[in-house]
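Thread amino acids onto this structure.
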């Protein structure tokens, strides 16, 4: 954004807001440098420290230092003396697989290798660029300056499946509230490594940016870092060294299913970020290694698909539900595993 923020301590010099964050109602008291390190994945600790030293971190209208303790509902801004670089949303004629559409909402079936919105390293070719080409005057979330037109939620670049888009301000406001209140019904299918012990289970643990690797998320069971997250899972099919599961989300954290399943020792098959793109379970036989390599060639991504999306329609109030078929790459890998387990003795 380019709205200027006047700072009385700097002789009324214009400052431009580059980041804006509002602490959650349940936010634990935490040093602001640690808080921002978790929230801003492309920012290092040293940059945060420099920003604080230069008076660029503003909380509730006042400058703060690195040791300031963030509290619930704090309004935090990082301001700099130059305008923020804007992502230019140049419309692009990218085909969309529209499952449902009316005047208020639409549901899109997103393929793999398709980034949802612009960001660092993805300045073109995203779903949002396609949306602004196909549809005019899509709404933005007025409570989040970093939002993108029409987006109610998002899924990862290489996760396939259903995504909800709002076409009016009223629809966006209502659907955002449903997501916040956890009244959206979302189910994912995933192939995970290992024979998941329980038929049903719940994984609960705060998810935040990894302390050691900024590109990864991590689980913090003691709640010292990140945000509260809950994932429910159900075993659908056991295939020896892998398991097909269905997951239901109570929260919507970055990489939630991927990091939660890795946390309990069952990373998603093929997931390069959380250790699923190597042999986690199985034998040492060369034929088995070749079998796995063939599976990875068919499915060069995490085996995760957003299959079901249900919600209360923002206009009619009716409960609507949509489902999408498993993509071909996941279906082919499942068939290979079914054949493998049928003709091979699986070691315990």
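Threaded sequence (348 positions):
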């Amino acid at each position: 954004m380019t709205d200027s923020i006047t700072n009385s301590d700097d002789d009324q010099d214009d400052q431009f807001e580059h980041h804006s964050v509002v602490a959650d109602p349940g936010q634990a008291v935490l040093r602001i440098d640690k808080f921002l390190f978790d929230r801003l994945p492309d920012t290092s600790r040293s940059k945060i420290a420099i920003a604080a030293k230069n008076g660029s971190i503003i909380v509730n209208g006042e400058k703060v230092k690195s040791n300031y303790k963030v509290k619930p509902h704090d309004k935090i801004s990082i301001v700099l003396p130059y305008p923020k670089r804007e992502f230019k949303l140049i419309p692009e004629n990218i085909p969309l697989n529209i499952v449902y559409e009316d005047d208020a909402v639409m549901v899109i079936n997103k393929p793999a290798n398709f980034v949802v919105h612009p960001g660092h390293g993805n300045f073109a070719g995203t779903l949002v660029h396609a949306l602004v080409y196909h549809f005019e005057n899509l709404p933005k979330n007025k409570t989040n300056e970093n939002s993108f037109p029409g987006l109610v939620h998002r899924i990862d670049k290489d996760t396939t499946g259903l995504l909800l888009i709002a076409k009016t301000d009223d629809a966006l406001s209502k659907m955002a509230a449903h997501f916040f209140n956890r009244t959206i019904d979302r189910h994912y299918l995933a192939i995970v490594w290992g024979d998941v012990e329980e038929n049903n289970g719940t994984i609960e643990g705060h998810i935040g940016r990894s302390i050691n690797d900024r590109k990864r998320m991590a689980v913090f069971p003691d709640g010292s870092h990140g945000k509260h997250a809950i994932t429910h899972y159900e075993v659908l099919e056991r295939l020896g060294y892998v398991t097909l599961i269905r997951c239901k989300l109570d929260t919507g954290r970055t990489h939630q299913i991927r990091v939660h399943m890795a946390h309990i020792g069952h990373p998603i098959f093929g997931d390069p970020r959380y250790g699923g793109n190597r042999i986690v379970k199985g034998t040492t036989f060369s034929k088995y290694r070749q079998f796995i390599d063939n599976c990875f060639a068919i499915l060069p991504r995490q085996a995760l698909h957003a299959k079901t999306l249900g919600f209360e329609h923002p206009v009619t109030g009716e409960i609507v539900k949509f489902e999408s078929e498993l993509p071909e790459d996941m279906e082919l890998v499942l068939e290979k595993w079914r054949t493998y387990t049928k003709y091979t003795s699986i070691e315990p």
